[in-house]
Specification:
- The complex is a heterodimer of chains A (92) and B (297).
- Chain A is an alpha+beta fold.
- In chain A, 38% of the residues lie in helices and 28% in strands.
- Chain A has a single domain (6-86), classed as Ribosomal Protein S5, domain 2 (2-Layer Sandwich).
- A four-stranded mixed β-sheet of chain A has the order 1-2-4-3.
- In chain A, helix 1 (38-56) crosses helix 2.
- Chain B has 297 residues and is an alpha/beta fold.
- Chain B is globular and about 65 Å long.
- The two termini of chain B are 14 Å apart.
- The mean pLDDT of chain B is 94.
- Chains A and B meet through helix 2 of A and helix 1 and helix 2 of B.
- Chain B: It comes from Anoxynatronum buryatiense.
- Chain B: Substrate binds at residues 67, 130.
Chain lengths: 92, 297
């Protein structure tokens, strides 16, 4: 069986977020969110993640987010990098 | 108003927390580092982080630069191509060794200004001179492009290229520092001194910053927010200097009003270089918001 394209970006340091993606167009999009501020900002975090994925044209696969209090700009950047890496597209 | 460049704070472009906190420390300039602070396998990630940060963060009065990767690496041109549409205007080019290095970046910026319909000449360059060859070529580098707002001196790579080590007293850097600042001043652009890495040595830092100011540098690259206060203190005119400079300028205006070519302050004649120095003191004071109507720096 072919392995799903995999990408990872970010860190577990404070104010950062670790994003891992397994792209699979044949599966529905599944987002797992773990955050130190999930109770307060969980819906806002999910909105940022889903909007960024939509802009990148990601429709299926599993996205794991471990958030350590990152602001929106960092979440967007880490999701973009993880997806690009999974696609093997953007060279360093 | 003169753009002060007393401090250029290096911030690694892979630490989101440091990136949004940087303006809080009020350096004159922030340099987001995509070069030495970023490992080869994280170049893409740091570039993306900086692009999103530039679009989202208000850096207030800080002048924002990126230290891009050299254009001879696979990363440098990608850095520039991504950062320009994100709104970055100032590019610090590391390892500048010849005017051709500056011209190569100049040509890339010209093409990108056209592509993104930006005003011609809006994008600026700070050339970082960090090798023996770069120091020798400093006068040609400093006049290579109208986009140059300054040149900086980097001692770590310079001492490597000279097969020596940095000392506490800095004799090994004296000629190079003098040459770089002379080239910058002759070209009418800023000169930025190298970083001081011994964070615990406050006395040594104070001494080095004072020497940089005395040599004619505009400011210093700093690696930690704790260094900003010392550099600003040393590079900002003291109150008595400002008052004296104001009296000289007032006397000059009075002489002009009286149709006199002789400027007198405290019974002494003042000549043209003294007036120009006084004006520079007032320009620095104004830039630091120390003149009436502004706050304290």
């Amino acid at each position: 069986m072919k392995k799903a394209p995999f990408g990872k970006a970010g860190t577990l340091e404070s104010n950062d977020v670790l994003v891992t993606v397994e792209l699979n167009e044949e599966k529905p999009l599944e987002i797992e969110l773990e955050s130190i501020v999930k109770a307060q900002f969980g819906s806002q975090l999910m909105h940022t993640v889903t909007t960024t994925l939509k802009n990148l044209g990601v429709a299926g696969g599993t996205i794991r987010i471990i958030d350590k209090g990152a602001l929106d700009f960092a979440i967007r950047a880490r999701v973009i990098t993880a997806v690009n890496r999974a696609r093997g597209g953007e060279a360093l | 108003m003169k753009q002060l460049r007393r401090t250029m704070l290096f911030v690694p472009a892979d630490h989101p927390g440091m990136m949004f906190e940087a303006p809080v420390f009020q350096p004159d300039c922030i340099i987001f580092d995509l070069e030495d602070a970023i490992s080869l396998k994280e170049k893409d990630s740091a570039r993306n982080l900086l692009v999103e940060a530039l679009k989202a963060i208000d850096f207030g009065n800080c002048e924002v630069f990126a230290r891009i990767n050299p254009l001879y690496t696979p990363f440098g041109e990608k850095d520039v191509r991504r950062l320009v549409p994100a709104g970055l205007q100032n590019f610090r080019l590391p390892m500048t060794e010849s005017p051709e290095d500056i011209l190569r970046l100049d040509q890339l910026l010209t093409a990108l200004e056209k592509e993104h319909e930006l005003p011609r000449g809006e994008l600026k360059i700070l050339g970082a001179i960090e090798t023996a060859k770069g120091v020798i070529n400093a006068p040609a580098i400093a006049t290579a492009s109208p986009r140059l707002i300054g040149i900086s001196f980097g001692a770590e790579d310079f001492t490597r290229s000279m097969t020596t080590e940095r000392s506490q007293t800095g004799e090994e850097l004296f000629w190079a520092r003098s040459h770089v600042v002379l080239a910058a001043r002759a070209a009418g652009i800023d000169a930025i001194d190298t970083v001081f890495t011994a964070l615990g040595d406050e006395e040594g830092f104070d001494r080095e910053v004072s020497m940089a100011k005395q040599l004619g540098f505009s400011g210093k690259s700093v690696i930690h927010p704790s260094q900003i206060k010392t550099v600003h203190r040393i590079f900002t005119p003291a109150n008595d200097e400002i008052i004296h400079a104001q009296r000289i300028i007032n006397a000059m205006h009075a002489a002009e009003a009286n149709g006199s070519g002789v400027i007198v302050v405290d019974g002494k004649m003042v000549d043209s270089p003294v007036v120009l120095k006084a004006q520079r003191v007032l320009d620095l004071a104004k830039g630091a918001n120390l003149l009436p109507g502004g706050g304290e720096a």
